[in-house]
Amino acid sequence: MDIENTTPALVLESVVKEHAAGPSRVAAVRDASLHIARGEIVVVCGESGAGKSSLLQVAGCLQSPTRGAVYVDGCDVAGLGVNGSADLRRRRIGFVFQEYNLMSALTARENVALPLELDGVRRADRQAHAALQEVGIADLAGRFPEEMSGGQRQRVAIARALIGPRRLVIADEPTGALDSASSRVVRETLVERARQHGAGVLVGTHDREWLSVADRVLEMSDGVLSHATRGPE
Ligand SMILES: Nc1ncnc2c1ncn2[C@@H]1O[C@H](COP(=O)(O)OP(=O)(O)OP(=O)(O)O)[C@@H](O)[C@H]1O
């Protein structure tokens, strides 16, 4: 394995995330530390309000930590500034959310190509088509999101999250809105694509079905990330 491949996809060091709530503050993440290697799938479970989304937002550089450090693919996010952080998100991090977050005015292929096009990558369209082929929905490339099922939309989101040199994929309740058959397809697709691309994957979910595909399962409770873990069940 070369040096680049041994760089962790994600390192969190003593991360604290507080949210303002009126005059007081809520500690959503309390002193969380975590390493995710490339190709590794880590699932964080926990009840509603445990702090999973807050942890994922900080890990995905969508929010700054109140304290602590975040490294994505070896890069210290605190030193990047607003533009550098946006570039890192667009180039190195893929996101999959419960709500899909696809652009409704763009076709499936255009949605997948968008992060590459924003970076001026040539032949983005062709790469997007290949990515849709890999997730098994190339025949829907010309459809708009509203013309697809939830499971199909989520596969478009996965193709978009993994296109280009992604080092880290953040998935927040990726199967929360899907039936069990679509959920299984989405799980298998994300896992297979992550293994092929060598991206580290951090999934926050209530869906216990994710435990069977995880390399590590962590529990979150009242902002505390517990490393008293199990392997996959
Ligand atoms: N923007 C915000 N402003 C104020 N408080 C927030 C904000 N976001 C989250 N919180 C609070 O932080 C805590 C953790 O919330 P978070 O959404 O991270 O949990 P979660 O485990 O993802 O929950 P769920 O599974 O319901 O999405 C909760 O007490 C929540 O009310």
TrEMBL record:
<dbReference type="Pfam" id="PF00005">
    <property type="entry name" value="ABC_tran"/>
</dbReference>
<protein>
    <submittedName>
        <fullName>ABC transporter ATP-binding protein</fullName>
    </submittedName>
</protein>
<feature type="domain" description="ABC transporter">
    <location>
        <begin position="10"/>
        <end position="233"/>
    </location>
</feature>
<keyword id="KW-0813">Transport</keyword>
<dbReference type="InterPro" id="IPR027417">
    <property type="entry name" value="P-loop_NTPase"/>
</dbReference>
<dbReference type="InterPro" id="IPR003439">
    <property type="entry name" value="ABC_transporter-like_ATP-bd"/>
</dbReference>
<dbReference type="GO" id="GO:0005524">
    <property type="term" value="F:ATP binding"/>
</dbReference>
<keyword id="KW-0547">Nucleotide-binding</keyword>
<dbReference type="InterPro" id="IPR017911">
    <property type="entry name" value="MacB-like_ATP-bd"/>
</dbReference>
<dbReference type="InterPro" id="IPR017871">
    <property type="entry name" value="ABC_transporter-like_CS"/>
</dbReference>
<dbReference type="InterPro" id="IPR015854">
    <property type="entry name" value="ABC_transpr_LolD-like"/>
</dbReference>
<keyword id="KW-0067">ATP-binding</keyword>
<dbReference type="InterPro" id="IPR003593">
    <property type="entry name" value="AAA+_ATPase"/>
</dbReference>
